[in-house]
Design goal:
The protein is 34% helix and 25% strand. By secondary structure, it is α/β, with parallel strands linked by helices. Strand 6 and strand 7 (157-161) form a beta hairpin.
């Protein structure tokens, strides 16, 4: 979000306080945010709150600084506009083209992508008039970030809560990202697998799933239709991605092979356990014997099996290596009949966890692109740039 210019319109609903938290997150991620509030919004949150968070003036009226023509300038300088929360009244005005305050006038003058995040009581939200206005805006290309179901300020439950911050941020990112994977079906595997030998003990590895989650999130941001098959992790899967949770390698195999054969790109970043204990005891083993022998049998190789039936699917594997990285990865590329493989150095703390990582992408006999060292979101973006380039050239 670094450098992103956001026009944030805040209207008069109780969820206006959440717009302040959203503003803070946007600013922390490097965005420049111009906030415009309606008079009703000012009853819920003071303009000073937004001014303090953004370090910029907050506009509340068409006549604040008329010589600077704020309704035009603010939406010309922004890359994207978001109205959050959007009341039924504001939605109706936008649908009808009524421009009677700074916010509605600016949105009417905007030529940038616009997102609307309704928040109101469920009864108001479900009014035919409101739903028709939202449908009209959607038809005109506005991104409607649907409200969520849950506790409402009036003490009732229903649909009307402002969309989560994560969904709002993802919508903004998607609106400013070229939709280069629009309509492309993508399958990503991520995380470790866990292979148990009694109800509380298992063997696994240090993968956290952060790489798979970042890859799935970036694909969705570029417009892909994404399924993420995710091993056990405490990290939250991305919004807007179909997530299938699995525990063992065999479950991962079922989930992956059960996906549509029309999947166009598979990125297998999961750290699948190659072995599993040959026996599982229903009873928890008791302390006592000075040593414990566990025999392992090999697990299915999910990616290799997928390659056997891959058809036109582009397969991108990962190679977690501690030595002779590229030689080992090239051997896997050939052995598993992959289109490309990303080499991951997993010595010590590197590679696993949410910190930095370094990747090199290999393909064909000698294709090689160093994706450098960066945080996982940046590397995921570079990986997709490289995959898209390979697809164009194939
Ligand atoms: N993989 C898989 N199923 C397995 C093992 C690996 O689908 N049982 C996939 C991984 O998701 C990754 C690629 O195969 O995309 C390579 O994984 P890696 O663990 O590096 O290689 P292995 O084939 O397991 O070889 P080794 O452990 O001997 O390095």
């Amino acid at each position: 979000m670094k450098g992103m210019r956001v026009f944030l319109g805040v209207t008069g609903g109780i969820a206006a306080y959440k717009a302040a938290a959203l503003t803070s997150t946007l600013v922390q991620r490097g965005a420049v945010v111009d906030v415009v509030m309606t008079a009703e919004a000012e009853r819920f949150v003071a303009p000073l709150t937004f001014a303090s968070l953004t370090g910029r003036p907050v506009y509340t009226s068409l006549w604040d600084a008329p010589e600077r023509i704020p309704h035009i300038r603010l939406v010309r300088e922004a890359n994207v506009a978001l109205v959050a929360p959007a009341t039924a009244n504001c939605i109706a005005k936008l649908a009808l083209g009524v421009a009677d305050d700074l916010l509605t006038t600016a949105i009417l003058a905007a030529r940038i992508p616009i997102a609307i995040a309704p928040a109101m009581n469920a009864a108001m939200y479900e009014q035919t008039s409101n739903l028709e206005h939202l449908a009209a805006l959607r038809d005109r290309g506005y991104a409607i970030v649907e409200p969520e179901e849950g506790y409402l300020a009036e003490g009732e439950r229903g649909v009307g809560r402002l969309a989560s911050e994560e969904r709002l941020l993802q919508t903004l990112e998607r609106l400013v990202t070229p939709q280069t994977l629009s309509g492309v079906s993508v399958l990503v595997t991520g995380g470790p697998t866990r292979e148990a030998f009694d109800p509380v003990r298992f063997v696994s590895n240090a993968s956290t799933g952060a790489t798979g989650i970042a890859i799935a999130r970036e694909a969705a941001r570029r417009g892909a239709d994404v399924t993420l098959v995710l091993g056990p992790t405490l990290l939250a899967p991305p919004e807007g991605v179909r997530t299938v949770r699995v525990t063992t390698a065999r479950e991962m195999r079922e989930a992956v092979l059960g996906q549509s054969p029309d999947t166009e790109i598979v990125v297998a970043s999961a750290a699948v356990a190659d072995w599993r204990p040959s026996e599982f005891s229903e009873k928890k083993g008791k302390k006592g014997p000075p040593s414990l022998d566990v025999t392992f049998v090999s697990n299915p190789d999910v990616l290799a099996e997928l390659a056997e039936r891959k058809g036109k699917t582009m397969l991108v594997g990962f190679a977690a290596e501690t030595h002779e990285h590229e030689e080992n990865a090239r051997e896997k590329l050939r052995r598993k009949h992959l289109d490309a493989i990303a080499v991951n150095d997993v010595r010590g703390e590197r590679g696993f966890g949410t910190g930095e990582n370094a990747l090199v992408l290999l393909w064909g006999n000698d294709g090689r692109k160093d994706l450098g060292s960066a945080d996982k979101a940046t590397l995921a973006a570079r990986l997709w740039d490289a995959i898209e380039e390979l697809r164009r050239c194939s």
